[in-house]
């Protein structure tokens, strides 16, 4: 009774900062191999954890912060250009877009119908303006809530350090408590949380990041515009099976339409090699080796988690489904041991 009351009160106190603490735990999982590597030269656990967090800030957080502003500006600029094009009666589509096989003339007809249909044009431009306002409001809210955002970031970093430094002891305590409270019925399902988290981090997040980083120089060499925006889109779409093709296929068509067939073939071949290798070999290897649950279950967990919990659901969703699957397997073994 007393423990239950204390747990409820503790949750009530930390609830406003539960999300950054969960992110800290996830980051600790992701950074644990780096921490083990650092410990070879810096055996002190405190200094190893501190150096790991410092490297994370220097190599990940700082570049992401520097990239966030230009990406937002590029999205704003492209949306503004589209709105201005629709509102300008004399503006015409680029020739390469009109000359696209199969779909070029349909795009031209759609643009013409939009410009001649006042009601439809007003609706489209109104939606674009609302998106522009939303982007602007996001920047304003970020600026106005900078102090609160920095506090959450600090808590996440402190949580990452704490989980790196004390994580093993904390997990052993949780395991002992669950074992004494419910025995193997609870301990076994909890045991799938670490490998599932690692599977998501390495099998989805890092492979998607690798695809984006490998696609960026290819986009640059091929001369495709808006490299930063397209690389970000490749990272996001790569979280899903064959998702990166949604970005690089239109870029290949653009190269063909602008009179660069050899570049288009090389660009497409590179992306097929990178995306295919990641999708069919690297991603299943990481997810299957660490989590031992079907990839479809991971994918459903990612999609459902994003829809239900937001960005952090990328990890929470698959963890919930993997725990459910482990409970299901345990019940089947209990009911039919032979």
From TrEMBL:
Which taxonomic lineage is given here? Bacteria, Pseudomonadati, Nitrospirota, Nitrospiria, Nitrospirales
Entry-linked InterPro entries: AI-2E-like (IPR002549)
Put simply, this protein is called: Permease
Subcellular location field: Membrane
Q: What family name appears in the similarity comment?
A: Belongs to the autoinducer-2 exporter (AI-2E) (TC 2.A.86) family.
Which stretches are transmembrane? Answer: 48-69, 149-167, 199-219, 226-247, 253-274
Q: Which domain of life is it from?
A: Bacteria
* Record's GO cellular component terms: membrane
């Amino acid at each position: 009774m007393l423990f239950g009351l204390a747990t409820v009160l503790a949750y009530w106190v930390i609830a406003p900062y539960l999300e950054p603490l969960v992110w800290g735990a996830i980051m600790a999982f992701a950074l644990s191999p780096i921490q083990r590597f650092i410990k070879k030269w810096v055996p002190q656990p405190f200094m190893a954890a501190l150096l790991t967090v410092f490297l994370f800030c220097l190599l990940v957080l700082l570049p992401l912060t520097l990239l966030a502003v230009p990406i937002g500006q590029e999205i704003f600029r492209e949306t503004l250009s589209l709105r201005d094009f629709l509102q300008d009666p004399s503006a015409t589509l680029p020739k390469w877009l009109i000359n696209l096989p199969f779909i070029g003339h349909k795009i031209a007809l759609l643009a013409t119908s939009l410009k001649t249909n006042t009601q439809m044009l007003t609706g489209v431009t109104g939606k674009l303006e609302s998106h522009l306002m939303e982007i602007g409001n996001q920047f304003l809210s970020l600026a106005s809530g900078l102090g609160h955002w920095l506090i959450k970031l600090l808590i996440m970093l402190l949580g990452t350090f704490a989980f790196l430094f004390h994580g093993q002891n904390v997990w052993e305590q949780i395991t002992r408590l669950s074992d004494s409270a419910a025995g193997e019925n609870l301990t076994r399902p909890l045991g799938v949380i670490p490998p599932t988290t690692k599977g998501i981090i390495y099998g989805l997040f890092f492979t998607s990041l690798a695809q984006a980083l490998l696609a960026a120089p290819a986009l640059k060499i091929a001369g495709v515009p808006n490299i930063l925006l397209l690389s970000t889109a490749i990272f996001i779409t790569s979280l899903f099976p064959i998702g990166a093709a949604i970005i690089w296929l239109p870029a290949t068509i653009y190269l063909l339409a602008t009179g660069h067939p050899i570049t288009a073939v090389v660009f497409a071949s590179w992306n097929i090699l990178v995306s295919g290798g990641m999708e069919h070999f690297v991603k299943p290897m990481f997810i299957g080796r660490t989590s031992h649950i079907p990839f479809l279950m991971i994918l459903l967990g990612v999609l459902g988690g994003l829809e239900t919990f937001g960005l952090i659901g990328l990890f929470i969703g698959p963890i919930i489904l993997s725990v459910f699957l482990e409970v299901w397997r345990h019940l089947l073994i209990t009911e039919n041991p032979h």
